[in-house]
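Fold these two proteins, one after the other.
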Amino acid sequence: MSETFQPGGLPDKHQVAASFSRAAESYDSVAALQRAVGHELLARLPESSSPARWLDLGCGTGYFSRTLGERVPGAEGVAVDIAEGMLRHARPLAGARHFVAGDAERLPLRDESCDLLFSSLALQWCGDFSAVLREARRVLRPGGVLAFSSLCVGTLRELRDSWQAVDGFVHVNRFRRFEDYQGLCATSGLQVLSLQSHPQVLHYPDVRSLTHELKALGAHNLNPGRPGGLTGRARMLALLAAYEQFRQPQGLPATYQVVYGVLHKERQA
């Protein structure tokens, strides 16, 4: 199955790396969703999972590298991220034995060198998810597990729809469909143990709180062809008015459509 993304559908990887590098210092202060999703992903690991060597792919500031290090003491940990700024932040805090700059679509690891590949909320930035799955299958040892969380269509739909009502431009990052995750995982050569999509809704007092958080995470609009320049006062006021239509008693909602996948590389007969 081929990807649905066309050239220009996702941000350039250099832009992604630069944006997350800039956000390294502010990321942890606003990463409540990322923590919750990652811990949910850990809870979905097979009970029998006891890797001798694990990989935290898209390690960011190293939070889950440290969590994995505590969960599997004595195991060798490898933390990989495309953003050098994140790695600089993560290294002094330890957790993994090795911190490596690398791309999920071309992992800088040997064949069959890991027992667990853990990746939480990073793979949505990869344009070729089939390449990610091929690389996972290559670096996993027989019996190894790929556990990932990602985002799919429906994420930040309230913000997208509000901007659409204002000017018709795409101001929100694009994500692939859940059906694409299903098709690509089914043909990956890995056994799908579980693959599900769950909405997670956060609430904010106002739009600026949401957009500030996205910027602090490094996950603000990185779409190719996004509108350039500053947002004018009139357009911003129109956005605020459009988003108010979604307000709930808890505040303004922001929906994240989270994909959880656990795949297994079968042992050879």
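Now the second one:
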Amino acid sequence: MSETFRPVDWIYSSNIYEINLRQYTPEGSIKAFSRELPRLRDMGIDILWFMPITPISREKRLGSLGSYYACSDYTSINPEYGTMEDFIALVKEAHTLGFRVILDIVANHTGWDHHWTREHPDYYRRNQDGQFFDPHGWADVIDLNYDNPHLREAMIDVLRFWIQTTGVDGFRCDMAMLVPLDFWKQAREVLDPIKPLFWLAESEEIAYHEVFDATYTWKFLHKMEAVWRHESPVAGLDEVLDYYDTMFPADGLRVYFTTNHDENSHSGSEFERMGMMARPFAVLCCTWNGLPLIYSGQELPNQKRLKFFDKDQIDWNGRYELHGFFRTLLQLRKRNPALRSGDPAVTLHRLHNSFDDRCFAFARRAGDDQVVVVLNLSPDELRLPISQLLLQGVFREVFSGNWLNMSTAGDLVLPGWGYAVYEKING
């Protein structure tokens, strides 16, 4: 992060919940989703990320309903979801409950019948035949032209509109690396004085931390999947995490996840891609040095691929089996300074041991506060000698409530695919 832009102070112990409005409820509307706010707040969710809520282009639409990311108007609400008044009311209610709200902004491209194609065709890039186009093989969208200063001004006006009209607290910027970095700098310089915002880039390019508060971790996601498929040893996780620590700025926040809308719809649920490792990897994403991202339905847990271009509602059954699982982890993040992200006062140490081929363990410390995480990435019971972890003091396991004296205990026993998260008891 550059000295020019600093993250908002509320981000460091936060988490993000991605909302797929279309698939969330039978109605697929803003009003219907608002009924879920108290439950999500109880689960410990801090930031609500709404996938694009703008109208969807009809020309070259994919599927029956089209892609959320092929908009026809940047400053309107998709009528399938409700009205602008509905969204304003939802943001207000969310703020009352203690949430922050960020909006998905698709700045690189629009749908083919966006009103700018008629009113400002110069806002778009052209191919060698002078036609609108997209170079990435996405048939339902066309690229905007950031060489045009008027397009830049118009896009900044779009962002300003959502801040001033609805009161959102930031933006998740779709495919941010496809938009010139200097545009994002220009936008922040204009918009930050209006309201301190959280800026999340869908990007893993290091340079984008010059502007953005947080970026993605696809490299780590794919490594977790490779470990499950036995295409990488557990040590492969360390290789990626060491790369992040070495190459990315120390105060550059990273977003860790086991699934999101793209991965679920196009590659499969986390259970398809990570199998029995999905749960311990979710623990890892919630406790490593970063911001955890949870996707709609993970608390169910949702085990199916949700169609991307058609209605395909999450099969809620009213049980929310992982509500308590995520609540435990997210509340721990809030109360324990050792899990604060991007804080130079926090140290993180891998706890290597004789089971490194199937055990991933680490400790995070901030002063007297300490959290220890142990993951069993194998189907076999793990009996890990506590002495190998070189830890002292009394700890409480946050899921079971059991106490453990690291100085006198013998073995730490975890079942296959098991996990344990220990919080040090001080005083």
